[in-house]
Amino acid sequence: MRASFALLLLALFACRKVPPPGPVHFAREEVTLDIRPGVLEVRGNYHFTCSATDRLVAVISYPFPVDSANLYPDSIVIAGAGHDRNPPGISGRVPSPAYRYERSDTAVSFRMRFRPGEEDSFFAYYRQPLRTNSARYIVTTTRKWQRAIDLAQFLVTVPASFHDVKLTYKPDSVVKKDSTVSYYFAHRRFFPDTDIVVTWR
Q1: DSSP letter (8 states) at residue 20
Q2: What is the mean pLDDT of residues 138-165?
Q3: Coil, strand, or helix at residue 63?
Q4: Is 84 helix (H, G, I), strand (E, B) or coil?
């Protein structure tokens, strides 16, 4: 009886159809993680392509790892492509204009327009207070898009004073300077089941 029930469940599971990916494809990302004692700064460019025949407007949710060790970011900028500007507290130049976003407990969300047959992008920056010698950047939400990212590139920079630095992803290259160490890695067809976690002592 138990075997028959198990076979019935297996047959039902096999008959379930996985919904096809939507018309918006998360195609590429370039992300830098700058870690210092007590703080993580993230800057990312995220690129999408659209296979729809008409323009689309979709809500994008941008998540943060918020828990007892990773506090909610104290500074957030979400911006679109356009002329450059310098938001307060951010070194370097980022695209603009900025998107209006809504906060939730572990993310911000905003509306983004997608053009058929074109690539559309947004820029995100956040600064997150850290309570332990570890930092995390969420990449596993990629799986919600039901399709791998064509190319994902990451640059993680830590102070040279950090010891025993470990990353969940093996770096392709390591560049050591007087005051910093940078780890670079890239993945094609990126469909991660593990977030980027950096630990040190």
Answers
A1: P
A2: 96
A3: strand
A4: strand
